[in-house]
Amino acid sequence: MEKITEYFGTMVFDDRIMKATLSEKVYKSLKKTIDRGTPLDISIANAVAAAMKDWAVEKGATHYTHWFQPMTGVTAEKHDSFIAPAPDGRVIMEFSGKELIKGEPDASSFPSGGLRATFEARGYTAWDPTSYAFIKDGTLYIPTAFCSYTGEALDKKVPLLRSMEAINKQALRILRLFGNKKVKSVRTSVGCEQEYFLVDRNLWKKRKDLIMTGRTLFGAMSPKGQEMDDHYFGSIKPRVAEYMADLDKELWKLGILAKTKHNEVAPAQHELAPIYDSTNIAADHNQLTMEVMQKVALRHDLVCLLHEKPFLGVNGSGKHNNWSIATDEGENLLSPGETPAENAQFLLFLVAVIKAVDEYQDLLRLSVATAGNDHRLGANEAPPAVISIFLGDELTAVLDTIESDLPYDGVKKEKMQLGVDVLPKFSKDTTDRNRTSPFAFTGNKFEFRMPGSSNSISCANIHLNAAVAEELKQFADELEKADDFNKALHELIRRTVKEHKRIIFNGNGYGDEWLEEAEKRGLLNLKTTADAMPKICDKKNVDMLTAHGIFTEAEIFSRRDIMLENYIKTVNIEATTMIDMSRKELIPAIASFASDTAKAVTAKQAVVEVSCKYEKKLVKELSILIDDMDETTSLLEEAVEKLKTIDETVAASAFVKDDILPLMDKLRSLGDKAETLISEEYYPFPAYDKLLFGV
Ligand code: ADP
Ligand code: MG
Questions:
Q1: How many Cβ atoms from other residues are within 10 Å of residue 642's Cβ?
Q2: Which of 68, 153, 421, 631 sits between 20 and 30 A of 688, alpha carbons compared?
Q3: Residues within 5 A (CB) of ion ligand 2
Q4: Mean pLDDT in each 10-residue stretch from start to end of the chain (695 residues)?
Q5: CB count, 10 Å around CB of 434?
Q6: CA-to-CA distance for 509 and 490, rounded, in angstroms?
Q7: pLDDT of residue 411
Q8: First and final CA of the chain: distance in angstroms?
């Protein structure tokens, strides 16, 4: 057995390899670019490219690709080989600094939401040296950002890097106010817990819905679901364990710190969590993880479903985004400190997040809005579509004390004085209990639980970083002017708690009571993508995002359109798949069972005098269901036709929400009802019991 320490990161051009293969001058210069973002000289790029190529060729690579994250939500790549002709007919392997730094994929087929038309610009990819290059399937992958020639972002990485820069800039201002002169940079880190389902590949092949849409469009719940709670953290079946081991190994070779794996709540559902990393790297790694998960599954005759709601009636899959801010010296700014000054600083960052989440609920909600995730948020499972923050009782009590200027019982019978008093110790336990909150403080980080399992984590983090940067900016503006820092600080924290405590909710986020209470508090409940996405264009959001240089106004409008188009297309594919399954497979199967049952009545009655009450009732019930299904399928067909005539994106998305999805729900419930009435042999698709318990 090979040791993990020996193969970990073997496919990555990481710091070890850089040090070993680059001259000291080149290494130092590259390091400066990575750590501080200083521009890279072309001679340095040439040297790095040459070293990368030699290393990759040595490992058997023949091609390289600029790897990027267009607005489709999946990654894109175009492979070029290293070969160049030599005069004598041989080929040599070449790779220049120019090729490393910049690529020009044919960008015309990637969604740009009209940006390219507006700016008449082709797209190019630019190397992101902060994320290591790696080898996969014989190709050297170079992580890049994707822009138009006029500098408009065409991907999810450019705005992510911009948002990290925004928070860096504002957090540094705050840290200086607390007297920290040493800190050079501040970065956000993310560790995302990836949930997924595994189904048997042969069963998967028999379901058009899983193949075309990644979720079941028909299917009645099996006799057993997740009610026994016997799957969560349950022992892992051998076939799944083999898959997980194989997956870990592939990820480790790529330098991905896959750490935790376990069974999830629903049957056939599992989770993988890596050790957290700088946000842009975490985003790259998560994209790669999703890809490798699917690829490795095939080797085990399994299919990995990353859809947010593959099965109705059991939990869907999310991707908890654990987020924190830390300095280059390793100080976690969301960690309660040891000294009064550290505590005050912690509380300031804490209330900045609280204010950010309250004021930009809409941005956070829309940052995770997709057709798939709508089935999870707002359905009867955590988290709800309403955004709130869980802080835990202890921390909430501290904030209450500051707000009311009353004594805090937990510490001492005196007022809490910021910058003088020490905070009580919070045990991680008490801050980590609530599993239903969409945004929970878990001791030294926030866990944003709304992102869907197939979402790129970039969107969530772009908006989270931007919103927090905005609040830190407002705080810095105010505090920099203050004569008495501690007094101003106390006042600022107190005021912020008072104005934004409505977003704090420590109770159960599942129930209808909470939805009522949330409405009273004036919190937003944006149930679907069609409701949420247009809000990105609200003035307050445009102002904030453009002020911090996260997006230009044109980029914001283009993103709204791209995301809504994605929603419309996704539902459209689902609707047409449903129509196809209903007409070609399900209705014929039910009809044939009904007709065989009817024939049995005639046959039976030819030999004995019986009423055949049961059969007749069944045939009648099924006939009615078939008629209803036919009618609903026709209505769905008409709606799909009508959708084609609606040009305006926001109107089309509203039509999808109000007309198409309800018809799909209706058709499904009719089909599922029929499924429970007919014999298993007639049902044309593998049923839920096999899908959920078949591995
Ligand atoms: P849970 O109880 O939700 O399963 P864990 O403690 O296992 O949470 O951590 C979940 C994720 O949070 C992991 O990916 C972990 O690396 C990440 N994480 C831990 N600390 C931080 C931090 N300071 N910043 C960002 N992510 C973190
Ligand atoms: Mg978690």
A1: 13
A2: 631
A3: 193, 320
A4: 88 96 96 85 94 97 94 86 93 94 78 61 84 95 89 90 96 96 96 97 98 98 79 87 96 96 90 96 96 97 98 94 96 86 90 98 98 88 90 88 70 56 58 78 95 97 98 98 94 96 91 92 96 98 98 94 96 98 98 97 94 96 98 98 96 98 98 96 96 92
A5: 19
A6: 31
A7: 46
A8: 27
CA–CA dist 61, 42 (Å, integer):
24
Instruction: Phi first, then psi: give them for residue 126, nearest 5 degrees.
Output: -125, 130
Phi first, then psi, for residue 386 (nearest 5°) are -80, 130
CB 459 within 8 A of CB 156: yes
- Of the candidates 496, 499, 494, 502, which has an alpha carbon nearest to the alpha carbon of residue 519? 502
Phi, then psi, of 189 in degrees rounded to 5: -120, 150
In degrees and rounded to multiples of 5, residue 436 shows phi and psi of -100, -10
Classified as helix, coil or strand, 159 is: helix
Taken in order of first residue, the domains within the chain and their CATH numbers are 4-155 (3.10.20.70), 173-180+331-550 (no CATH), 194-219+229-317 (3.30.590.10), 566-693 (1.20.120.1560)
Whole-structure pTM value: 0.94
Contact 675, 684 (CB under 8 A): no
Containing H/E element for 574?
helix 553-581
190 lines ligand 1 (CB under 6 A): yes
Q: Which atom of ligand 1 is nearest to the CA of 323?
A: 25
Chain-centroid distance, C-alpha 610: 60
Pocket test for ligand 1, best of 322, 331, 353, 444 (most atoms within 8 A of CB): 322
Q: Counting ligands in written order, which one lies closest to the CA of residue 432?
A: 1
Among the residues of 645-660, which ranges form H helices? 649-655
C-alpha dist (Å) from residue 647 to 46, 429, 651: 48, 52, 8
Query: Per the structure block, which two tokens stand in for 434?
Result: 């609530």
Nearest CA, atom 13, ligand 1: 191
What DSSP letter does each residue of 185-220 carry, written as one string?
A: -EEEEEEEEEEEEEEEHHHHTT-HHHHHHSS-SS-P
- Residues 547, 548, 554, 556: what is their CA dihedral angle, to the nearest 10 degrees? -110
Q: Is the Cβ atom of 277 under 6 angstroms away from ligand 1?
A: no
Separation in Å, CA 628 to CA 221, 621, 624: 21, 11, 6
Neighbours of 531 (CB within 10 A): 21
